[in-house]
Amino acid sequence: MMQQNFSDHFEKIIHENEKLKSELDREKKDVLLRRKELEKHEAKNECERRKLIEEGEEQKKADEDVVRLAENHKRETKELNNKILQLKKKLDAKQALELEVQHLKGNLNVMKHIHSFCLNLSCQNVRSAEFVFRDFHTPVLLYHQSMFSENFIKKPFFWENE
């Protein structure tokens, strides 16, 4: 019986050993599967980490581009505002010159009208003076002419008397 017990015990140990071996093999397979999964996850995480780093670098570059574009926009806006101010000043100066030209043209027209009026007035004064002269001096002139004629006819010249 002892042998039987020993044999049963030995079989039991072998059976347990096989059972443990089979469990160990199963756990070994599970560990290998987990290791493969972990390696896949690690590779995936590494890929995602690189991707995140690249995205971070791209984001950093995009942020720098946005800052550069904002600075360029600010500079261009400032330049355009300065140009607008210069153009406004030029426009104001041009309008002032045009206004002065119009003012001078107006003064010139006034002077032309005054000159024309003065010429008309002078001509009228000359005509009036001619009329006055004729009206006043014509009888006097006629009188003197008649006196001269009478004297000429009545009195012979002094050389004829000699």
Automatic annotation (TrEMBL):
Coiled coil found in the keyword field: yes
Swiss-Prot/TrEMBL keywords: Coiled coil
A biological process term (GO) from this entry: gene silencing by siRNA-directed DNA methylation
Parts forming coiled coils: 10-107
Top-rank taxon: Eukaryota
InterPro entries (alphabetical): FDM1-5/IDN2
Name of the protein in its database record: Factor of dna methylation
